[in-house]
Each structure stands twice: as structure tokens, then as C-alpha cells.
Amino acid sequence: xxxxxxxxxxxxxxxxxxxxxxxxxxxxxxxxxxxxxxxxxxxxxxxxxxxxxxxxxxxxxxxxxxxxxxxxxxxxxxxxxxxxxxxxxxxxxxxxxxxxxxxxxxxxxxxxxxxxxxxxxxxxxxxxxxxxxxxxxxxxxxxxxxxxxxxxxxxxxxxxxxxxxxxxxxxxxxxxxxxxxxxxxxxxxxxxxxxxxxxxxxxxxxxxxxxxxxxxxxxxxxxxxxxxxxxxxxxxxxxxxxxxxxxxxxxxxxxxxxxxxxxxxxxxxxxxxxxxxxxxxxxxxxxxxxxxxxxxxxxxxxxxxxxxxxxxxxxxxxxxxxxxxxxxxxxxxxxxxxxxxxxxxxxxxxxxxxxxxxxxxxxxxxxxxxxxxxxxxxxxxxxxxxxxxxxxxxxxxxxxxxxxxxxxxxxxxxxxxxxxxxxxxxxxxxxxxxxxxxxxxxxxxxxxxxxxxxxxxxxxxxxxxxxxxxxxxxxxxxxxxxxxxxxxxxxxxxxxxxxxxxxxxxxxxxxxxxxxxxxxxxxxxxxxxxxxxxxxxxxxxxxxxxxxxxxxxxxxxxxxxxxxxxxxxxxxxxxxxxxxxxxxxxxxxxxxxxxxxxxxxxxxxxxxxxxxxxxxxxxxxxxxxxxxxxxxxxxxxxxxxxx
Length: 643
What we know:
The protein is mainly β. The protein contains 6 helices and 35 strands. The strands form 5 sheets. It has a 22-stranded antiparallel β-barrel. Strand 10 (174-182) and strand 11 (186-197) form a beta hairpin. The longest helix has 11 residues, at 19-29. Mean pLDDT is 89; it is low at 1-38 and 267-273.
């Protein structure tokens, strides 16, 4: 992770830490501990440059989460797990399975590019990945890049990139299975197998989770005051075949279905008198096929074809006098994404050159369910050429990237980035980087009844300075950044150019995301590890100077775990200052602190028991106004993995 030390005096006044966050910063200044999510310097990551690169040669700000960390976390959703990383905040309308947003360094949720096994995931309706539809149970590894990467990935990567990877088959045939149960009639089960036979490797898995849930609406809202059920089923397969020493093919497919309650309210007296059981229905499918050729020791080629589809549907059923009517579909949106990538990687000593051609095809369908709303069906394509240059020799590291995207709707857009790292003393490294990025308007923002076909791409300019220390036992980093975005697309009720009295989308906003992230970890002896991070930032509307909705100016995490023999015990603390639910900063959301506890014991070499207590103090807090969050939650799970 990259960093540069910055005093509170150097920050804007609105970004200065409170006594609570200052105390956490002092705690982090002490030696802290290495854990699974902190990659070693020898580990390779692919997210920063789209090719495998040793962490020691990266200038980017990257975090890695491995499978062991995922299992110990006890998290149900991908977003919940990411919220424990530096620079990441989340917002959710209620419980697991409801609309979820992820803010990297305070940037809009649609400004994070998300890939699953190299397959792009995005919504051409709301914009951004459908985080609530991503099945954490099928994920083996997560890489998070903070900072813009449009010069590598094209549209979307203004705030950062998240890469999710499923399990890859290795070694002999290895089955696994797990079951778990917890509060609110929660239960889950997973099963699968992986391995390799000769030149063929495979991994197949399936999972199911269900919970009675809780009432996701706060009591002050008129709604169906019942427990809102959550249910998820998922399956995936990943296959690989090494044709010969030079050529390999890989295929991956994943499918997930999620059903959750959200209990909308309405101004209709009929709706409020009868109430309703409102449901979110998500369906996500991804598929990818790739061919890798190692032509020579210095030349490698990747050809990849990907496809993803995401469908979101809402239903409503009358609930009155103990009667539950038949669910009626109230809204449907479907996004289809296809991608074609041809990438060449050339290495010569300390130099690496990448050249890529990429085509992206997006399609959106919003079927009409009423006689007053028309069906929306639009598509577009983007063709791109990208070049990258990397140099690592001794104490110096350089990374340069340039990309041009040509959109079938609004024309061309060129982005670039430049980074430099210098190891000025053993184990100490300073970095500096700058880059531009953009996000094309969604098809819904341009062509729906609330859209404007003349919308411009949202554009960003980012600069950051960093300092990092790592000696294998202790790692510490501080990064200071500023990301300015223009042509920010907002929905405004004062603009009725689209003919709708409620308002239209418009490219009139400007925002600045600036701040500093301090993160550290340390391993004490062989048994105890400690890690933590604190973010001090000022995400604001450049025109009004007001704080952007649902983003805190100060938030942090502190966690430690102790391992002795067959036992592992740990605790996590999550802290957040207050936020606002609206752009006018009139509806405050109180700050909060959460305590999570967990323990595991290796009953046998192939059997492990895990127990967690989340929100141990039963803290009452909200992430979005009028939506509740889970109180104290207990969970116990048993995992079987033959060795």
C-alpha cells in the first residue's frame, strides 16, 4: 500500500481528526501486525496493471483478501468484507440482499470497476456493480485497487477496481463441505470439490443461505412490519487445460439468485392501508473463456471472451388481515455485458511493455409493466487500444499507461496515468502518481424517460503521494490523495428538460474526494497479530461545499487475533463518524462503533469449528435513513476439508 505522512494542519479543516480518530491514529503508529489480507512482498497481484506483478514492484495502493480471511470474517456479503479494508465505506438499504453501495475513497459506487474472474459486472440502469448479488461463498480471493485505473480498464474505474476470483483447482481431488446456523433462523450450507489430473484442473462449488432476517424499515415509517426474509443460491465452475508448455485455456461460469425483502412505502392510501410484502429478486450470471500463449520467455498473449448478465426485479404482494396475495412484478431491469480482450505482454530485463485491444458491448432492457411507461431497449459499444510500460530496477519503479476508448454514442476519450516509486532506505519506499479517468453515462441515464441523450462522460483527475514500510513482520503505509470529478451526473428535480415533472439526469455536478489513509499491521511473535487503519477525508460537492451523502469524514478499523495450538480468537472494531443522508446535509446519520468477536478451533485435521458474535454490544445504528441494520448476531459453522 502506498503512502505519505501528512499532518492534520495540512488537511482542510473539515478533514481534521476528532479525538477518537486521533487516538486510533496513535494506536496505529505503534507496531501492528501482519495477517492474511496483507500480501507479502513476494506475492503477485494482477489488478494494478492487468498482468501478474510482484507486490514489491507495485506503486499502486492495493489490498488482498485470501480465503482464510474470508472464512474467519464470517461476513455474509462481499461489501461487508470490503468495509473492513482501508479506504472503503458501504451503505445499504436494510439487511443483506438489499441495495448496497461501495465507496472507494469516497467516490460514487458506480466509479468502482468490478470484475469476477476477469468478467466485468456492471448495471446499465443504476450504474455500478450489483454488490448485493455477488455470492461471497464462491469467492477465493479479492484484490482491491484504490485510485483511478481507467488508463488500464477504461470506463468506470474513477475511484478504483475490485477483482474477485473463484477457487482454482490444484493438487489431487479435494472435496469440501460446510454448514452453519445463527440468529434469526439463519442457516447456510456449502459443498464442492477441486483438484487437478494431469494437464486438467477443475473447481466446482455450490452454496445456499437463508435467514428469517429482521424488519429492515425503522418503526417511524409506515410499512409491513414483518421480518424480511433473505435467501441466496449460487453455483460456479472453473476449468483449465494446459494444452502444452506454451498454451493454456481456462473457462469459468457462475450463477447466483437472491431474494430479499425491502418493504417500500408509498403515498397511496390503498398501499398504506393494506401494506405489502416487497421483494428484491436478483439474478447474476457470468461466463468467461480465455486462452494464454507463452510464445517465448519474454512474450505472452492473452485472448479472452467474457459475458455477464444481471437482472433485477421487484415484486409486491398485498398483506392485509393475515392474507398474503399473489406477488405482482413492479419493476424489471436487465443488463447484458460482453467483452473481448487481446493483450500482449513483453518483458526485457527490467522493462515490461503491454499492448491491448479491447471491445465492450453493453445492452439494457427495461420492459414496460404499465400503459404509461415505454419499454427501453438500447445498446452501445466501446473499442479501445491501451499501452503500458513498466520499469523496475534497484530502488526505482516506473509505471506508465495510456488508453483511448471510442464509444459508439459519444465518441472518443483518452486517459493516462504515471507513477514513480523510490526505495530511499531499505524497507522504506516513497511514491507519487497521477492519472485521469472517466465513466460513460449509463444507457438508462441517457435514454430512459428521465434521461438526456446529450449527457457527457464523468471525468476525473487524481494525484496522490505515498510512503510505505515493510520488513516482513511490520507493514505500514500512508497515502494522501485528491481526486476531482467534473460532469458529475446527478438527478435534479429542477431540470425538467426530459418532460418529466419529477426531474431528469444532468451533467452539472462537480465533486472532490480528498483525504489520507493510514494503515498498519504487525505480527507479535508467533501467536498474536494486530492490524488497523484510519481514513480522514473530505468528500464534498465542489459547488456547494457540502458533504456528499452517506460518506463519513472519519472512519477506521482495528482488529487483532491470537493463535495458540488448535485455537484462534480475535476481535474487530469498526468506527465511523457521522454522515448525512441527503445532499443538503439536513438529515444526519449518527456515527457508530461496532465490536465483532470470533473464535475457531481445529477439531481434527479435516474439521474446523467457527463461532462469531457480530455487533456484540447490540449497537443501534443506520447506514441509510429509515432503514434498520442487524443487532447482535451470533453464528456457528462447521467446515470439513480432507487433507
